[in-house]
Structure formats: structure tokens, C-alpha cells
Amino acid sequence: xxxxxxxxxxxxxxxxxxxxxxxxxxxxxxxxxxxxxxxxxxxxxxxxxxxxxxxxxxxxxxxxxxxxxxxxxxxxxxxxxxxxxxxxxxxxxxxxxxxxxxxxxxxxxxxxxxxxxxxxxxxxxxxxxxxxxxxxxxxxxxxxxxxxxxxxxxxxxxxxxxxxxxxxxxxxxxxxxxxxxxxxxxxxxxxxxxxxxxxxxxxxxxxxxxxxxxxxxxxxxxxxxxxxxxxxxxxxxxxxxxxxxxxxxxxxxxxxxxxxxxxxxxxxxxxxxxxxxxxxxxxxxxxxxxxxxxxxxxxxxxxxxxxxxxxxxxxxxxxxxxxxxxxxxxxxxxxxxxxxxxxxxxxxxxxxxxxxx
Length: 357
Fold this sequence. Notes:
By secondary structure, this protein is mainly alpha-helical.
């Protein structure tokens, strides 16, 4: 990935970093405009709010700077996102208390939209907000209205933060689970490589077409005597062949599931984590499925007649992992839907609420 250098400062390569910097610059311009309009004011509260807004925006810009160290970029990713957006949100809440009345009226719709998206219908803060706005078109907005708007917006941001925290937590759980499954699969593969006959994946068909002269393994078909056991032809590469077939089946389910993955502006890659989990799980279910067939556990299946048939069943068992991981997919989609249902409404450009319709 190319990083464009402007002077001595690197421009961010992540989309969320660009959004944070753009949003911070816009809010900074708003704060500067308000400060210029109230340059001669004696209101210490306005001056203090403007200074606080500038401090929050500066912290947001620092969080959005791209670390030069790739390891630091990965380790600090979640913390930087939280730091950047919480500072942006704090600045937006404070801005409601100092913007001119004509600007405040244009922000009402955005506050109501976000509050309705994240607060429960019976939440007292949402109820109070709607109650105050019932008479807003008939009078001038007061300091009490500003306080109600700020309180509702702050509450909505807190709930939204908790929802996004659940996305991050589930993402972390999925990546940890993927790591554990991968490590377990690697240990099992290493054991089977060293001891291929201990859990043989080979079959000895007993059909008339073969007599007792063939042993079928994932890595090949071998002639044998009538008394030779299938484990005698087991090879280290057998388990790898089955796992690759399982991975192919898992890849197919990932491609099919793409049509159900929702787009989101939440920068945590939850859908990616759910998709990656399918690959080691598919390899594992392929090996376990062939072992179950080998042990006669699955009714109607005992001996597989050819290597092609054996690998085909491995692919099928790899696909079958979707029976388990689809529950993970559903949970991920539900979590993303809750966290992203409000999108990222721009509080400056949402029209005011109209109760006349």
C-alpha cells in the first residue's frame, strides 16, 4: 500500500482516518467561525467551549495519524479508532451549546435521527427530546432546548459506542477462535504426518469390481494382497490432501455467503473475521468426516471405492462446516445491523424535523 507524503507528514491510508481528519477539519472551521463571530463576547462559557472543542479535535487528529511501525498500527488500531471518534463526538456535543440559533435548527433533525436509532422508544432522554421539540417550530430555541439536544446526542453516542464495542468484541472472539482452530489443526497435521498409520484415512473396497486387491488413500490408489490392512499404505501427505479438499469446500461456502454480507462503515472487519474462520474449520471437518466414514459411524457409508470419491467426500465435509459457521454469520450480521443502523448522519446537513405531516 502506497503512502503519499505531503511535506513531512504522511497522509493516512485508512478510510476511517481520512473521515476523521475531514470531520475534524470541518468542525474546526465551524468553531473558528463561531469564535470570530463572538470575538468580543464576554461569555466565558462560549470561550471555554471553543477551547475544549479545539482540544478534542486535536486529539482526534493525533489518533488519526498513521503509525510508521506496522506492528504498532495493528496493535493500536482499535484504540485509535475509539480515541478518534469519541473526541469527534465530544466536540459535536459541545458544538450544540454554542452554535447560532439558525444553525442549531438545522442540526435538530440529525440529533433526532441518531437518538431514535440508538435509544429505546421509552428512554426518558428520547422522550424528553421529542417533548421539547413538539413546540420548537412555534418558538425560539432556548438554552434548555440546547441542553436537551446535547443530552440526547451524548446518550445516543454512548449507546452507539456500546454497540460498536460489541462488534469489536465479537471480531476479537472470532479471530481468537480462528487462531485456536488453526493451531489445533496444525498440531493434528504434524501428528498425522509423523504417524500416518495411527489414524489412517485409507479404505479397502470390498466390491466385486475390486476384489481385495486395491487400497484407496487420499494421496493415491495402491495394489495390495488380500491380507494387507489399509493402514499399511497410509502416507504423510494423506492428511494434507484431505485438508486441501476441505479448504476448497470451505472456499465455496465463503463465495456463496458473500451475497449475504452487508456493507458497513464500521472499521473492524467483523465479516472478514467470520469468513476466515470457515477455512480452518472446513479443513478440520473434512478430516473428521473421513475418519467418521472410516469408522463406519455414518450410516450408508463404509468403504469409499476410489480416490476421487474419497476427495469428493472431503470437499462435501468441508462444505458442511457451514452448518456450524452459519450461526456465526447470522450473529455477525445481526451485530453489524444493530451497530450500523444509524449510519453516520451528518448533523450539519440533516433537515429539521417536520411535525406537520
